Amino acid sequence: MISYILPTHNRPGRLKLTLAQINKLPTEDLAPLGGGEIVIVDNATVSTIKVPQNLPNGLPIKLVGLETNMAAASRNIAAQNASGDWLIMLDDDSYPLDNGFVEVLVNAPTDVAAIGADIRLLSGQREAGGLPEVIIGCGAAIRRDAFLAVGGYEESFHYYVEEYDLCAKLLLAGHRVIHDMRFSVMHEKVSTGRDMNVILKHLVRNNGWVTQRYAPDDCLANDLRETIVRYGQIAKKESAESGYLQGIKELFATLTDQPRKPMSNDLFDRFTGVSHVRSTLEELQPTQKIALVHKGKNCWVVEKVLREMGVKAVDSESDADLLMIGTLSPGPMIDAWQSYANSTKSAMLPWRPTSLDLKANSYSKMPAIVGLSI
Q1: Angle at 237 between CA 236 and CA 239, to 5 degrees
Q2: Is 22 exposed, middle or buried (0-12, 13-18, 19+ CB in 10 A)?
Q3: CATH number belonging to the domain at 277-370, selected among 3.30.70, 3.40.50, 2.60.40, 1.10.10
Q4: CA–CA separation, 300 vs 304, rounded Å?
Q5: In angstroms, rounded to a whole number, what is the distance separating the alpha carbons of residues 286 and 284?
Q6: Which of 99, 127, 232, 347 could be cross-linked to 29 through a Cys-Cys bond (beta carbons 3.0 to 4.6 Å apart)?
Q7: What order do you get walking across the sheet with 61-66 strand by strand?
Q8: What's the CA gap between 269 and 362, in Å, rounded?
């Protein structure tokens, strides 16, 4: 059985629209998984939320009300009240576009505890965030037993970076995390009204917490320093220095309180994406010249692996033998990869999500390189 998990706060109209989208999905497709249900957790909405006991398509609905807004950690309460073996993690403004996830879950290897979705936005682009073994919270499937066994989401994170902490705990427990683009989710998120000072406060603090908790001893100090510097640069760009400084203050005040569970270097390489890039790029030759394009999240990983291999990175695309996407975030990485489908040069993915081919539907794995032949 599956359980759709829908946390919500003060958006009853938005929740109603999302339920209407889930109602469009044929429930008979869920039979191989034992059926389904919806678990809504209300994060202290001001007005009373009213939902039916069942959707018109027959899916039963459980509504759990909270007295305070637990943000991402409200998913823990939903999981405790869920009956499904798999939790389909959504937001109140995200929903599966189809039932393609059924085949993915039925055939999921037993060591896979979480599966990230191909999360689309109304703009036509994909959701930013995540890494090869880090999901995005508004579109993922997680085994309920594994989720509860590691304690679910850490409440102190509130929101931002909580998925990194969760996936780190899953990796330490011996599980794997994957992304499968047959699992397709639409996220109709509202981009207006975001307070960048609040966002930067959470980003620098929570990323610092994750580093403090899980980075190996030999790279902890350097990784903490790089985290602080990186988000300082972002804060300056976004004119959010006051929020950033508040986050730094909170980080330093709480750093020694974080439970220290350092990963081995090999496991940390999986967590940061290093091992995935190594596996994909092992076919490259030192004589090749590579230009990194569309640089983004964890581009430093690609640069590190290229240095290890002795492959020369060049600044000019015209001087390069091959273009390589410079981000490990699955959504922006695939968007960038697709943008070169009709180019006279080829673009290479730094890692390969499990997927059907986006155009021909003929591959069980997305090819590493696209060019005129795709």
Answers
A1: 60
A2: buried
A3: 3.40.50
A4: 6
A5: 7
A6: 99
A7: 61-66, 36-43, 2-8, 86-90, 139-143, 112-121, 176-187, 94-96
A8: 31
CATH code linked to domain 2-187: 3.90.550.10
pLDDT tens per residue, the chain (374 residues)? 999 999 999 999 999 999 999 999 999 999 999 999 999 999 999 988 899 999 999 999 999 999 999 999 999 999 999 999 999 999 999 999 999 999 999 999 999 999 999 999 999 999 999 999 999 999 999 999 999 999 999 999 998 999 999 999 999 999 999 999 999 999 998 765 579 999 999 999 999 999 999 999 999 999 999 999 999 999 999 999 999 999 999 999 999 999 999 999 999 999 999 999 999 998 888 888 999 999 999 999 999 999 999 998 899 988 898 899 999 999 999 999 988 877 777 788 999 998 635 443 222 333 444 432 22
Amino acid occupying residue 304: K
pTM, two decimal places: 0.93
